[in-house]
Amino acid sequence: MDPRLIDDIPCNGPCRKRFRPATVNMDQATASILRSSGRDSGLRWLCPQCRQPDGPLRLAELPPELWITIFRHLDNLSILEVRSTCHRWKDIVDLNLCLRQNFSIEFERNFTMDQRYYPGNLFPAPSASLRDAKIITVDAWWPSFGPGLTVLSLDGCEIALPTLLGMLKETPNLTELLLIGIKYTSVEEIRVDFRLEKLRDLSCESVFDVFIDIFPRLRYFDLRTMSEDEEDIACRLLQSVQSTLTELTCSFSPSMLERIASMSQLHPAHVFHLGEKETVVQLCQIKMFQESIEDFCVTADNAALCEIGRNLRKLKSLRTTTDSADEFIDHGEQTKKKLLSTELRELSSTPSPATNVAIAF
After folding, report:
1. Which end of the chain, N or C, is surrounded by fewer C-beta atoms within 10 Å?
2. TM spans, by residue (predicted)?
3. What is the tens place of the pLDDT at every residue in 321-337?
């Protein structure tokens, strides 16, 4: 025990605190009696706070759990008003995601974020969106704001890759990341010392080697556009997350599909193929896809649709764009028979040019 506590007097009330005799106006004689024989003699001492008669519980004394239950019945505007009432209520709101989950911060568009930019009174929303911003540095305020984020969207922003990585390092709770239309002023890949273990959804238009290191547990990956140089990185990223990925949106090339065919743990249930219809047959011949795809979105002709019906045995939902409505109608019965051999429950077809075509089941 701390020697300084030997002379303290313990309160036997609910608080269980210890007090110096002088701070509670206790003379040394009484203190000595309580120290030496209080426990044996049955003497019990209560501090001034514990001696107060029982009465109605003051609002300030209600436990945080009760306040959270009350606040959950409020709308967003009321929660903001509650937050501005007192420091205690502000802390209760800020520290509980269930009270903040419906809020999203949308930063000013067409704005430069540099060392002079500092957003005041920033609400700790779990979702943030930056659009058409020039991001130079956010070091002054992002480290305190980023940890509360679960969703981050950058759309049309101008930023250097090292700056983006610095922002991501400060978002350990991120589960969803959207990087759309980004203009990278530098693509230097710096060494990183963090991983976003909670990130599940990634949508982007460019991929970098560093993504393989920092996104280890993706479930949803949307890569709608990429250069030929990025195909290798994209394949290695898929290789690294093949055991967790369940939904994949990509413009598959023949060479990508060849490499994907060797990824034995890749079993996505939802696949959105944005590539040429000529690669649909190749995709349907990948064994893992035959055993896993339940939801398929694709551009296909009748031959490809027959291949889908022949190979994707677990298919439940098919959304397709066809090149020719006439061809689709002429061979519809054959296509229908092939698709009926699957577990298909939903079919949506949009011909191009737009003509309504449907297969009735």
Report:
1. N
2. none
3. 765 544 444 445 555 55
